[in-house]
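ingest -> validate -> predict -> emit
validate: passed (alphabet ok, no gaps, 374 aa)
predict: started
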Amino acid sequence: MNRLLIIEDDKLLGTIYLKKFSAADINVRIARAGKDGLEQVTAYRPHALLLDLMLPDMSGIEVLQKLRSEAATRELPVLVFTNAFLPGAIQQARDAGATGVITKSDCSITQLVEKMSAALAVSDYRPPDAPSESATPVAAPEVDLRKMLREQAGPLQSALAQFLLIPSDTSRLIGVSQATHAVAGNAAAAGEHTLSWMASALEALEYDLVQKPKNRNPSSTNTVANAVRLLQAWLEGATPIPQRRPGDCRILAVDDDPIIGQVVTTALARAQLRCATMQDPVAALEALRADPFDLVLLDIEMPGMDGMTLCRELRAIPHHANTPVVFVTAVGEFERRQQAGLSGGNDLLAKPFLPMELGVKALTWLLKSAPTAR
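emit:
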């Protein structure tokens, strides 16, 4: 029987993996951290490894680099499980010698078992014989995936409450990120791909904000808080989880600066979203009258017609009466605009912004709003 070691810090997710892989006649052990995983590679001598990149003590990249530096594990098949919205981490994993990279939001637990089984079937790697007791399968308890998902709402809510008390505290932001990471993984295992996709995008933003603290401001805090609240509403059943991906939704961004328009397009593409851009607000209003869009991003200060006026005009168009509108404004103006009201808009985004902040903001409104009728 093939032996599989899984390095995954989420206890519930590890339990699911244990059950599903055991059912496929693969003997499994779980390590909760990177250092423990490296020790178990030596003791357990697995035929393959499933490695999460986000671990509490050392990164999955560091674990992979250590494995590839040792002759005994240089050819060990390692499938890396990571976030689709962290392209840098995906490339790092490949460069470090990952056999394959699997993105959580795009892979169900059944598909994961199939991919690992396929990797084992073609592998020539043969570890030294493990102690005989290691070949005894470990019984996995029954798991209610839906119940498990619902239970993620509490830790997420608690982490957000702590973060909002002191948004500048990196440790509190990391706490929100860890709770979001758990939601993303558990949702993927439960087959809730929209939930996993949203959580994965939010986790990527939180990762960027941890790595780039100078980009933290009231705007980014607002974006994180609203996205977490949407996840909570889904987990608690207050709002149905939409069974769609908004990659084909129509987004219009209006900004008189063509460079900002390109930045917006690139940022939304990172979140797998497409966007049309226009520089002339008067022409944009005609486009809005002619066609429905699912989300509108408006600069506030524009020649000919400012964003507030354009928003009021589009609200008079029947098919845009309820279309989400996000104003994009300078970071110094964010709080003043927030206090003064949105003049028909739904939200604010301060520039300059991180690409994933715009992506998460757009996803939040696209997924919490009913699709525009075609």
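The chain has three domains: 2-143, 146-236, 246-368.
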